[in-house]
Amino acid sequence: MHNVVLVDPYSAGSALAPVFAERGVPAVAVLTTPEPIASFLTTWHPEHFSEVFVLDDEDKLTRRLRELDPLCVLPGAESGVEAAERLSERLLPGRSNVPELSAARRDKWQMALALADAGVPHLRQLSSSDADEVAEWLRANDLSDSAIVLKPQNSAGADDVFVARAGDDWRALFDRILGSVNRLELTNTEVLVQELAEGVEYEVDTYSVDGTHGLVSVWRYAKQSLGNRLGLYLSTTVIPPGEEVIAPLFGYVRQVLDAVGLRNGPAHVEVMMTPAGPRLIEVGARLAGSDQQDVTRLAVGDSQVDRTVRHWVERKHAVSGYELLRHVRSVYLSAPGSGVLRSAERLGRLAELLPTLHNAVLPHLDGSVVARTVDLWTSLGHVVLASDDPDAIDRDEALLREIEAELRVEPS
Fold first, then answer.
1. pTM of the entire predicted model
2. Which domains are seen in the chain, by residue range?
3. What are the Cα distances from residue 82, in Å, to 11, 62, 75, 212, 349?
């Protein structure tokens, strides 16, 4: 019997094993660390797997996995991308992505180099562990008096993403990132520095089979800066497939996917539509995370998880466009400080207050101890709104912002 091999099946990847099981395909898990890292612990479900392996001796593991007659080897979360591709190439050569470009599907600096090699427009950026080298690069690129972004090369969820504007002390931010341990529990040995991309940001979720790319959904981000922190999420909204921006956006994304060697499977691509045209923020060779699979299914009746199973089990209908069934928006709420959350009574009454409410993921209610929101990891949670009427969604988001403005945080 075939088995599906899932590497770090966390976050959205935790949905894969049950869906494959419904089609009669059991799953085994491969963990890249002895235990799931803290950021993914709540999404680890060992009961979904007939066997769980830890990736230590890769030769021994490959021999054991070959005995299980693997149907495919897939990453669940960002941390499993490179290991899944290595194992896939050893077990099922040619079924995954271009092996030589694996780093370009994981490391943000290698992404930029791959785009440059392929002649795809990209942001000016540098990876370095030397602040003096960065200063020289800024001078050489006429960016010394411009806004720049500093962030880890291998993290997620807007973790430690900073903006330094003209006159700011970017070196202090550089030193803060360098050598620290990020949300994926990796040490930042270098810092990625890039010009600030300004415009409208989009999330483009795709599925590819043998180098042909299909569009699963497109979402428009609303974000804001908070001091020197960049990427504080306000909302994500699905956009109809007929919007004028879709054609140039997806045309660019196809170039990006080709450049980084993504041939099979899902991709989560973040792109800024700037006055000069689309520019890549980053690409993930994996499922869009959090509950994005569920909200995509709500919006378009399909998801990357569904296409993954159709690709590997049915061998059909994995590459196509999408149709909008209903308007959907995820609205993110923020804590104004760290301490005890107060004046949050109305967060517990959203079902009676919001006609378009689909569901709410709000682990922090009145009396909870919270951290000041500075990124996606420290959000108070999010509320999913869905309706045939986009104006109704706008009204409910406005009420959510009123409720958010009432929130107070007392010192704990």
1. 0.93
2. 3-96 (3.40.50.720), 124-195 (3.30.1490.20), 200-410 (3.30.470.20)
3. 17, 15, 8, 21, 43
